[in-house]
Amino acid sequence: MKKTTIFKFLAACAVLSSEASYAQMSLLSNFSANYGNGTSAGEIAGFDKVSKNLFVTSSSSAAYQINIFDLSNPSSSVGVGAIDFSLSFGSKANMSALSSVAINSAKGFGVASLIPTANTTTLGKVGFFNLSTGTSLGTIDVGYHPDSVSFSPDGSKLIVVNEGEFNASSATNAPGSISVIDVSGINSGNLANLVSLTPVTKDFSSGNLASGVSLSGIRNSNVAAIGTSGTFIASVPDFTQAANQNPNAIEPEYASVIGDKVYVSLQDNNAVGEYDLTQNLWTKITNLGTITQTIDASDTGSTISITQTVKGMPMPDTVATYSKNGKTYVVTANEGDARVDDRDISRFGDIAGSDSMNTILDSNYPTSNTGVRADAQLGRLNVSRIDGDTDGNGKIDEIRMIGTRSFTIWEVTGAGLQQVYDSGSYFETYIRDNDASGWVDGRSDDKGPEPEGLTLGEIDGKTFAFIGMERNNGIFMFDITDPNAPSFFGYTRTSDGSNTPLRPEGMSFISAADSPNGQNLLIVGYEGDGTTASERIGVYSVVPEPQTYVLIGIGAAFLLWRVRRRA
Prior knowledge:
Mean pLDDT: 91
């Protein structure tokens, strides 16, 4: 057999086995995210590739701090310290949360987002810390209710997403915004200069919108008067009317930077904003509309029934970006989110009391728990009270569920984001068929498995998406190299008795080149269910199935044996 034939055979073997294989997300360690006084920890974690330390958010009345873990051995992590930001607003009582963390290894510092108790009247802050010493470097003011922090890929800009979250108990509604901080002049030798930097903060008022950009048609869950907790929104608004377009009602959630653009999820508004870093303006706001899904809509059934078709609003939490063949794509985890007091949603089958849907539904729907509003159909499903009026008569003609129980890939075009792929019912169907013990029927009436966490990683030239299910606790892996035809690549759900991690939130991919053990790693922060035992960090190695390499190895050995026999 000729050598060229051997090489061709080996190449074909590698390709075929690779296409037929899935990936393994193998758990290396599952450890408590809490350290010292730092409990309610684990929501977000950031890795420093220089010190090999992991910096984890911890947010409780006992302490608002960053917990530090030595991750030099990913299979056996050790807590080594904490950075306390509890007094950032004068006293612990004045602080509400330490919500996010981001790491800039090249410049030697990290940053945490800090939220005051008076989140609608007091500006939030970001706190800086030294990565090598694990000490605080001070704070600066940003916008209202800073919810997430991240860096541009080149590390020159810090992006702070200020949610301006609605507070039903406050008489003030603070604006959501983005703060951009230029850190290009910062290095490990002048970290003290960080607290002298001035953020550029832009909300959604007309002066911060580029020509042709408006809030017309963008969902506004704050249409009812501020301070109406306990009162359900009782009318269906027209969001194209100026009176219902309030810049203070826009609530940014998460950001991803690619080139000179920042793509920001506006979760409660069912939209994604595009911010231009050169113009310092919002250059696009895309209304994500609806996606029709088939779901299990009832939490009362003894069997899983993925049979109900309904339109959902994506309302993504986490977003990520990547490029392919000269085009930019935005990936969204479509969690869905109601107002913090839940006054903009009700069960579709509610027919009495202040949460009755009867007064706001079109006459095409029954007024009793029958037909499509029966509990066995869509009656138990929580739906929006302010969306779905398709003919402008103030009544809901088509119900809208919160979130779509899927992830979506959108192409960036001149007209905004255009959907090129949606995972549909894949998450629910896969869990039903392959992990029935992981099915959480009690969430079927709300947002199902609830895809929330999301991160991208590149392995051997391919782009992969990792999506965390907040309620099912599973992690899905998809090959999204072809944005038009992603393919399932793996799934894992960790169960460890009383130390089972719950509710994956923050996720980050560490390439083999940057990881402590030379393997591709997935770091997952589990925020827990209110019990300290469930607040954990999961460290997973991400590798192809061993069978891939076994098949290639067997083929290679066989061919070499044939060559030697003929020699």
